[in-house]
Amino acid sequence: MREVEQxxxxxxxxxxxxxxxxxxxxxxxxxxVVASMVGTGVFTTTGLLTKDVPSPTGxxxxxxxxxxxxxxxxxxxxxxxxxxxxxxxxxxxxxxxMHPAVGFLSAFVSLxxxxxxxxxxIALAFGQYLTAMGxxxxxxxxxxxxxxxxxxxxxxxxxxxxxxxxxxxxxxxxVIAAFVLFGLPRGTWANLDVGPGLAAVVPTxxxxxxxxxxxxxxTGWNAAAYxxxxxxxxxxxxxxxxxLGTLVVxxxxxxxxxxxxxxxxxxxxxxxxxxxxxAAKHLFGxxxxxxxxxxxxxxxxxxxxxxxxxxxxxxxAVGKDxxxxxxxxxxxxxxxxxxxxxxxxxxxxxxxxxxxxxQLLIYIGFTLSIFGALAVACVFILRRRGIxxxxxxxxxxxxxxxxxxxxxxxxxxxxxxxxVAAAFGAGTLVLGLVAYALAGGAPVVARPAEVIDATxxxxxxxx
Length: 463
Known about the structure:
With 463 residues, this protein is mainly α. The chain has helices at residues 9-16, 26-37, 40-49, 56-83, 90-97, 100-133, 139-156, 158-183, 198-201, 205-218, 223-226, 234-263, 266-269, 275-321, 338-354, 357-385, 398-417, 419-438, and strands spanning 391-392, 459-460. A two-stranded parallel sheet has the order 1-2.
């Protein structure tokens, strides 16, 4: 599909109402999903995961279940995004289907937890992998420079940011595929035969906490929904980008972690952040570890770019609805929401200086699980209200029910096993409610439920 497509009459109405042009096609939407997901988490989480899931096969199952949860969520967001094809993701769904306060709270959490904190973690990991490659630069300095540079690019011109994402995402996929193909034959499969069996690992609270770690790596499966207002033919493009992107990344994650686990002894991976480097050194020697560190650092560049594309669209949507925050909706002539990009980048830079990597991960996973569950629950409200639905997920209601059950298990286990992280998450919610009150608690501006011809039959499956 072409990346810039001619808008139909309904989409033109969006532009007349102040919406940006729908110039993003399937490739960019798909790239955003993949680039948002394949980043820091998959190259750092497994080493930290070993404490809660002390079994290689248990870790592989954890990554598989995490992918299943993401896929179920992707089906739900595809249905919601097709019905509400405006940028903002769960902010749009929660504000219009539950309550404006819930939508505002999700946007506040997205700013702090969903995008600024991951952006800080990704930038720190970028700097650490550069250091592992032998670049004598402080990780905070190199990571901060990356955040600032890509923020300027995405604020300046949307098309430039989209082309950048497409190129770097394709390169990242090719590198991971090559690492899997060349690494697996060199691995030691006996490395999987340690620790307790699945029957002893899966029913434990530790496995649920492990899913919280993994959920950070899967963050981004909903990325295309955040730019729905700029996607051409959203009823077709969004479901394909969300579902296919999630399926591709899940397969890559399981394969990549299999290489990590057969590539290095379990004890060597335990507690390590740069697990990619550890595995590469065991598989290809010290030089191979340095080369992979550089490749991973380059791959993280596209993840930073994806976060800078998606996050500010949420704050832009809030700025359109809440008069006191209207400055967040201001754009440069051909670029993104300038103040939203700047605010997110500034918060990320502060977090890079004040928080550790592992503290950021568990805090992110716990807090985002709450709003992911609320957004997916909106599917049931959408169907009950009879709103026109250009796309319907297959096997309803199984996907949202599976997603909600897994999120509930993760949230409850997180409260029990990681009370400090849960307390910080609860504190973030309180701050969000205070911010909502200070913003005036303005009602959401009425918008049509959909802008697509509702007389056409709903799309099904991935078409």
